[in-house]
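Please check this one:

***
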Amino acid sequence: MKTIIVLVMHGAPPTDFPRQELSEFFVIYGKMKREGGHGAVVNPRYAELEEKIKNWPRTAANDPFYAASEALASELSLATGFKVVVGYNEFCAPDVATALEIAADESPEKIIVATPMMTRGGEHAEAEIPAAIRIFQEDHPRIETVYAWPYDKAEIAAFLKQHITRFV
């Protein structure tokens, strides 16, 4: 069974993105949130700035989080033997919906969506990722798409304990 992993990461603005435009982006974002959320009516300037931020050229120097995310994807691919496509919740391309489509272009029978966002209660892991998966599944009913989340809190604690013991 051909399986592809879509690894969903948070994303961060690149450090060399023009500060004035980044500030403008966050001011508009804050105003939109106060006025009822990130709904169907999006400020055109916000959309323009969001696209510019997401498609800004990334390097390890201007976006260490992006570089680390791509490195994690490579390690995950080596560990599992599956191709890994990275998608980002915000600030980076491809977004989650696009990453799912990139995976679908490989004609897999199964897509496993995973994220290192381990704790419950976060908007990305709890709401945004599942919403993107639901939309994707409507368009691709023949691809089994599994969201490998939430994590078992005992397994998270065991992982953290193992890591922490190196520092005791």
The chain has six helices and four strands. The chain has a mean pLDDT of 95. The CA atoms of residues 80 and 113 lie 13 Å apart. The first strand starts at residue 3 and ends at 9.
